[in-house]
Design brief:
about 240 residues, alpha+beta, Jelly Rolls, Arc Repressor Mutant, subunit A, four-stranded antiparallel β-sheet, 7 helices, 12 strands, about 25% strand, globular
């Protein structure tokens, strides 16, 4: 089902790429944008399939995966509210996108967005900055996977998700002392993302609980009780 977007009331407007557009171009974008909704677990777009639209994540979390010919699969990234889904100026994306949670997207026509990107310096500058930020984040994640201990890996992943969802307002506001949300990945997916065994992930989550950094509630709910303790266990700043 498609629903027209209203940029003036968009929850991620000040964080999304479209903030790089002048007002008249934002109005033009508003007239052509539409929403798509996906339940958790739903396929969004496939690797090597042509995608005629791009999107800004309005709510929820998307996981990006890469598969080998023999069926083995690896989670290679997560997209959060205000993140951009798509690969401009390339016919196909190398990754499969799937809704890790219920997701709402603000979708844009490929040709329209690529035209804006070429003709709008503010938008192209912001897109370049965001792309370089993603490159830096990927390098940090390579370091995490290669050098951190299992405890540091699990703590870093929870810290990453907590900060991104808190920044998006998913926990009800930055003034709350605890961050409470449904974790977007299962234990199996966490293990896959971190290159660990599922038993190791479960053991490290118990260690984080024992340290008072987090609590685990029903289902996938996680409460970060002590952000400073979680940061110490992750050993470094994690964006």
């Amino acid at each position: 089902m498609r629903k027209r977007n209203a940029c003036t009331i968009c929850a991620v407007r000040q964080k999304a790429l479209c903030r790089g557009l002048p007002e008249d171009q934002q109005g033009r974008l508003n007239r052509t944008a539409y929403h798509r909704h996906y339940d958790a677990g739903r396929f969004i777009s496939g690797a090597d399939q042509r995608q005629d639209w791009f999107a800004t994540v309005l709510s929820g979390v998307i996981k990006l995966t890469k598969s080998l010919p023999d069926g083995r699969q690896q989670i290679v990234g997560l997209l959060f509210p205000a993140d951009f889904l798509g690969r401009p100026f390339r016919g196909r994306s190398p990754f499969t996108a799937e809704a890790a949670t219920a997701v709402e997207l603000c979708c844009l026509d490929r040709c329209h967005f690529e035209d804006l990107l070429q003709k709008t310096p503010g938008l192209s500058q912001l897109f370049l900055e965001r792309t370089l930020d993603e490159v830096d984040a990927a390098r940090e994640w390579m370091f995490l996977l290669g050098r951190k201990t299992a405890e540091e890996k699990v703590a870093s992943l929870i810290l990453l998700v907590a900060r991104r969802l808190r920044r998006a307002g998913a926990d009800g506001g930055a003034e709350r002392p605890a961050v409470h949300w449904d974790f977007p990945l299962s234990r199996t997916e966490m293990a896959e993302y971190l290159g660990l065994r599922i038993e190791t992930v479960s053991r490290q989550i118990r260690a984080l609980r024992s340290a008072g950094a987090i609590e685990v509630a029903e289902g996938r709910a996680i409460i970060v009780r002590d952000l400073a303790a979680l940061e110490r266990m992750a050993q470094k700043e994690c964006e």
